[in-house]
């Protein structure tokens, strides 16, 4: 988690962390999530806050808990697909918002985005 | 729950606490913040009945302080109080002899947690390790209430990190912790509640997560507003 972000509610930061892991497939449907205390320890946040994040994720249908078992990522593929869409739309919204003020024509912008993507892909291949 | 109700305390003519009230619940970490000399340590001393108060009440689980109430609390002062020539093992024996709720198993676990060597003498310890021994001795008591006075003062970054790990561990699970500190940035994601003291009074008592959620403010943002 971003240690420098001390203004956003920590439980939302935790939920976001899970959504990102789900979107890139690092957390698979049905996979067990760490215990409340384990995650608190790893992220260095208050265990009560982790509890709150897990409760919220349960309500959103992202994780589920069967009696006396560790919580797991939902197996509802639709719900998981929505998480990815949601993150993409949110990122694009932020991008558009910040770039709007510079008044770049959309065609020019798309060219730049494409070029950047290729450079980044190349760099990843080299790495 | 610890309830501090309208507590007043004077040293001679100087009134240090002018009617302080706040509560600390089990399963929560309550952080007392205030500039130097504002009376944070006096509050902790008053809870431990180490200093008589002039007015007000302090209740532990609903009852006024008495010997049983005090035995439910462990007070971890800002410096270790064991004799320098003692080894860590001897300090542990001393605690075992004098404290009813000393839990040897938990003490051993804490030794491992902080990677301490029981044969080391107190006088030979680095500042960071002395702080860890101090915490180990206090946290090894099987009690519901933990008071920590400035556990991070004068300690290097890595030792501070190891000490903050205590706050997410089962070692303080279900206990009520009251901590005083100047290093809020280190623990602002770990604490539940903040009590800001100024000029002998509680100027603000708030939940750290609610300040972030409802006002988009960090604990330090709120402190700036109150103290500047």
UniProtKB/TrEMBL annotation, chain A:
What's in the keyword line of the UniProt record?
A: DNA-binding, Transcription, Transcription regulation
Kindly name one Pfam family recorded for this protein. Answer: GntR
Query: Taking every annotated instance into account, which residue ranges of this chain make up the domain HTH gntR-type?
Result: 8-76
> Which domain of life does this protein belong to?
Bacteria
Q: Which SMART domains match?
A: HTH_GNTR (SM00345)
- State if Cytoplasm is listed as a keyword: no
Molecular function GO terms recorded: DNA binding; DNA-binding transcription factor activity
The name of this protein is GntR family transcriptional regulator
Species this protein is from: Planococcus halotolerans
Automatic annotation (TrEMBL), chain B:
How far does the signal peptide extend, from start to end residue? Answer: none
**Alphabetical keyword list:** ATP-binding, Nucleotide-binding, Transport
One GO molecular function term of this record is:
ATP hydrolysis activity
Check the record and name the InterPro entries matching this protein: AAA+_ATPase (IPR003593), ABC_transporter-like_ATP-bd (IPR003439), ABC_Transporter_VariousFunc (IPR051782), P-loop_NTPase (IPR027417)
**What are the residue boundaries of the ABC transporter domain, all occurrences included?**
2-224
Entry keyword annotation includes Metal-binding = no
Give a single Pfam family match.
ABC_tran
Q: Which Gene3D superfamilies match?
A: P-loop containing nucleotide triphosphate hydrolases
Q: What is this protein called?
A: ABC transporter ATP-binding protein
